[in-house]
């Protein structure tokens, strides 16, 4: 990949990564809030105060985020006790895929910036020594490696596992599973 392709690819990966991350986070958060509001009976058995608190918080968030009605109406409500919740897990994984894509774009951007700074430094040294300068065509022939989001092991593989384990322990502790 040339320098221009690396720059454009890095910017594109970062932008798409942020979009995927935001959509996944909003959908997952709203799905979990809907799940909490659907589990009022279980929460009431633990504590009436906790049940009323979650009801007020969910209603307040829903009322104050009317611009997110698309998510409030169409986000999948998980049912951790009975079904597979495939669509919920897809949106959950999109959070981490968006983070990994953003990290890959950031890494590619750092690689691009490092190479361009090295080329600029080399130009300055060549001018100072009176040698012939490289033509821009020679600089454009440089090949950079592409950064894949699937190589972001922590963000894509380890972090979702940690979050699922912590979420399971938390929901089990609250007797919601």
Number of strands: 0
Main sheet characteristics: none
Overall shape: elongated
| SSE run | HHHHHHH
Helix content: over 70%
> Kindly, what is the distance between the CA atoms of the first and last residues, rounded to a whole number of angstroms?
49 Å
Number of helices: 7
Radius of gyration: 24 Å
The stretches of 5 or more residues where confidence is low (pLDDT under 50) are none
- Count of structural domains: 1
**Into which percentage range does the β-strand content fall?**
under 5%
Structural class: mainly alpha
Give the rounded overall mean pLDDT: 84
Ordered list of secondary-structure elements with their pairings:
Elements: H1 3-38, H2 40-46, H3 48-64, H4 69-74, H5 86-129, H6 136-140, H7 153-173
Helix pairs in contact: 1-5, 2-3, 5-7
Describe, in plain words, how this protein is organized in 3D.
The structure is a single chain. With 177 residues, this protein is mostly helical. It has one domain. Helices cover 77% and strands 0% of the residues. It contains seven helices and no strands. The termini are far apart. The mean pLDDT is 84.
């Amino acid at each position: 990949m040339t320098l221009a392709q690396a720059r454009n690819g890095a910017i594109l990966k970062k932008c798409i990564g942020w979009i995927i991350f935001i959509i996944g986070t909003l959908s997952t958060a709203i799905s979990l809030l809907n799940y909490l509001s659907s589990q009022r009976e279980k929460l009431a058995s633990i504590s009436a105060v906790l049940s009323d608190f979650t009801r007020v918080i969910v209603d307040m968030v829903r009322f104050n985020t009317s611009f997110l009605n698309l998510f409030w109406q169409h986000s999948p409500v998980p049912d951790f006790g009975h079904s597979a919740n495939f669509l919920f897990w897809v949106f959950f994984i999109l959070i981490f895929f968006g983070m990994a894509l953003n990290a890959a774009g950031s890494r590619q951007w750092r690689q691009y910036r490092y190479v361009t700074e090295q080329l600029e430094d080399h130009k300055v040294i060549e001018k100072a020594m009176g040698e012939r300068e490289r033509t821009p065509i020679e600089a454009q022939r440089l090949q950079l490696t592409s950064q894949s989001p699937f190589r972001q092991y922590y963000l894509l593989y380890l972090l979702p596992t940690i979050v699922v384990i912590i979420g399971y322990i938390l929901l089990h502790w609250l007797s919601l599973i």
